[in-house]
Each structure stands twice: as C-alpha cells, then as structure tokens.
C-alpha cells in the first residue's frame, strides 16, 4: 500500500490513518474508489453527482478547510464549536443575518451543524475555495434574498425547520420565534419601513406578553403572507383584514389586541 495514497485519503476525508488503510485495502489500493466508498458509507446525504473527485484541486482544498471545523467524533459533520470557529474565520457574527444565510446556503439540518458533502458541493458550485472569498459571497447572497420575495420566502421557511430540535416536534418556543422574526423581518427584509416595522414590533410584543404559546409551522408560514396581504399595503389601518378570513387564530387575536389597546382603528 502506497504511503502517498494513505496521506491523500487522510487529507481529503479527514479520516484516521487506520481507516484510510482499511478502505484502500478493500478497494485494491484504488484511491478514488476508496474515497467514494468511504463517503457512501459515512454520509446518508451522499448524492451521486456530489462524488468527491480527488483530482479536483478545489475539492481537496475545501475538504482540507472543512477538516478545521469538523466534529472530532464524526468527520462528516461540523459541531457547534467548529461552526462558531468557521463564522469567526469568516468574520460573521453568529447573531447576524449572514450567519443564517450561510447555514441556508449549506443546507444545514439543525442549528450549528452542516455536512461535509454539502460544504464541498455548495462551494464548488460557487467556484469558491478560500475563506477570504466566502464571506463576501454570503453577504451578497443575503442582499439578494432580502430583495426578492420568492427567494426570501425560501430562507424564511427554511428557518422554521432549521430551528426544530427533534423529529416530530410541532411547535417552536415563542421567544425563539420572536428572535428570528426580528432578525429576518425587522432587522432584515423590512428594515427602513418605519410603519411596517412598528406593526412587526407590536406583533413581537403581543406574542411575548399576551400569547406566550409555542408557534406552529402554519402560523409561521401564514404570518409572512399576512404581512404582504394585510400589513404592507396599509400599515396604519390594515383595511384588507377580514374577520371571516381563514387566518390562524393567533393573528385574529393580534388584531383584537391592537384594537383593545387603541393601537389600530
């Protein structure tokens, strides 16, 4: 078994030397076949068109970069510490919208974790392999998402699923939803629209002080529609609101709250 093949396998995958030797032995010392077999067995997210090509300099560079952030116990994913370090290296704060855009771009399935496969695939498609070029790309992507409703809706809906912690979970904590409504809507999509931001802020106050219940996906998804159809055209009076329309009950309660507190005609 060639020492250079073992070193190349370790460099690309981040695996231990003993693991590299086993896969190379099983593949008849075919490096490409060994690497592909390793990823097929160690990542449920492997896609046929994402097979790692060890002759691709970009793939080697990206895999080496990923190795800096991978989970010490599972080299196919990052852990929380690795993701925080990645954000630090990109000079992106964890609580800013660019951080969420990054995890959306990398198809993160849960907070603070993303897959090696998605990392390599996404950055290869973007033709970027240096940490210095990644942050400007993500910041530009954020601007694009904020400026186009269909693209923003994908990010908005991604966020709810991304925040779920368990399979079968039906509700998100209301305070967590408030944090992300503020990030996505007040500090993001509608920043600068004072009348609309005022209503969004009142919504957050209502959820925090009056509603105080978990938020369903239906409520989360319908709220962005409520903004576009009811609040945005007429933030002051919201004349398009209809008591008989099929809005989630929490939205009807919000309107009642505004009327009772003389915050709306």
TrEMBL record:
GO terms for molecular function: cullin family protein binding; ligase activity; ubiquitin conjugating enzyme binding; ubiquitin-like protein binding. InterPro entries: DCN-prot (IPR014764), DCN1-like_PONY (IPR042460), PONY_dom (IPR005176). Residues 57-259 form the DCUN1 domain. Pfam families: Cullin_binding, UBA_4. It comes from the Eukaryota. GO terms for biological process: protein neddylation. One of its GO terms (cellular component) is ubiquitin ligase complex. Neddylation of cullins play an essential role in the regulation of SCF-type complexes activity. PANTHER family: DCN1-LIKE PROTEIN 3, RP42 RELATED. This is Defective in cullin neddylation protein. It comes from Scheffersomyces spartinae. The gene is DCN1.
């Amino acid at each position: 078994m060639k020492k250079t093949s073992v070193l190349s396998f370790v460099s690309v995958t981040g695996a231990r030397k003993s693991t590299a030797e086993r896969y190379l032995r099983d593949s008849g010392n075919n490096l490409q076949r060994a690497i592909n077999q390793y990823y097929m067995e160690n990542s449920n997210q492997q896609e046929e068109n994402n097979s790692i090509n060890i002759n691709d300099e970009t793939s080697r560079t990206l895999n080496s970069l990923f190795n800096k952030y991978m989970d010490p116990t599972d080299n196919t994913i990052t852990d929380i510490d690795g993701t925080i370090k990645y954000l630090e290296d990109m000079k992106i704060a964890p609580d800013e919208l660019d951080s969420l855009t990054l995890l959306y771009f990398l198809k993160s399935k849960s907070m603070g974790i993303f897959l090696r496969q998605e990392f390599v695939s996404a950055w290869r498609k973007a033709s970027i392999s240096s940490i210095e070029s990644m942050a400007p790309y993500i910041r530009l992507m954020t601007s694009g998402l904020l400026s186009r409703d269909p693209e923003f809706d994908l990010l908005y809906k991604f966020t709810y699923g991304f925040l779920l912690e368990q399979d079968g979970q039906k509700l998100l904590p209301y305070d967590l939803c408030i944090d992300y409504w503020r990030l996505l809507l007040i500090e993001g999509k509608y920043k600068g629209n004072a009348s609309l931001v005022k209503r969004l802020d009142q919504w957050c106050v209502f959820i925090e002080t009056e509603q105080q219940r978990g938020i369903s996906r239906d409520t989360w998804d319908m709220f962005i529609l409520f903004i576009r159809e009811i609040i945005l055209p007429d933030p002051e009076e919201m004349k398009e609101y209809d008591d008989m329309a099929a809005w989630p009950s929490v939205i009807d309660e919000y309107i009642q709250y505004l009327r009772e507190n003389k915050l709306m005609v």
